[in-house]
# Entry
Amino acid sequence: MTTETKQQRIGIFDSGVGGLTVLRELYKQLPNESILYFGDTARLPYGTRTSAEILQFVYEILEWLIGKEVKMVLMACNTSSALALDKVKSEFNIPILGLIVPGANAAVERGKRIGVIATPATAASDAYRRAILEADPFVQVWQVGCPYFVPLIEQNQLHDPYTYQIAQEYLAPLLQQHIDTLVYGCTHYPYLEPILRSLLPSSVELVDPAISLVKVVAKELEMLNLQNYKQPKPTEFVVTGSPQKFAELSLQWLGYTPIVQKVSLPAVLGQALSI
Ligand code: DGL
# Structure
């Protein structure tokens, strides 16, 4: 592989700030890689969209990222990974990776009674249950769709008592089943860790699929001889909604205020015009 190809960026996308939990993991495990981050904030949340809409968004974003000559794409979004990855993976000629299988593999290493909290679309797709049972048919899986979490996080209401109350409601059926493991089935949810920890017995293991995904990315880069050993470029952030809002919200998780550009995908423009 040429040095030039190795230096190309990894494109990662999410509906909003959730993908930053994957970005942080990339910084930790693969500090030499340059990243292009795409947040489709004009159309979030994805988790209450139909599968046809999600597939359409994923196509648009992939086209856009590939147009920027990324060497690999990570779906830093479980909803897209659950509903679109299998379909699109073979249609593009660059590696595209998602969170479900790495998350499922990590979960079965930890426990036998596995709870998954996810967006309604991810929970309804049953993707986690299938992947977990494929990894280990002898575990039990309970999935809960959590429609309010992403809007609350995107509105920066993490410390609102209402968020705690909602979390209590979502966890109740899982606590009833005495889960020993809880999977963050949405990349936004690791931000809820303090709340979730306070509601769960301390013996319950929390699984962040981003950690396992990035391990898979490291192996894949090595296998394809695509690792960058040169100095990485600064991360570029683009969003379809308000760059300022994204930058302000991200500060608490990135530790710096990112420079964020607004981009328009053709369909986003079309959607805005049709309102
Ligand atoms: N963070 C994404 C996920 O992992 C999308 C959440 C949403 O927009 O509903 O599913």
Strands lie at 10-14, 35-39, 72-75, 96-97, 113-118, 140-145, 181-185, 205-207, 236-239, 260-262.
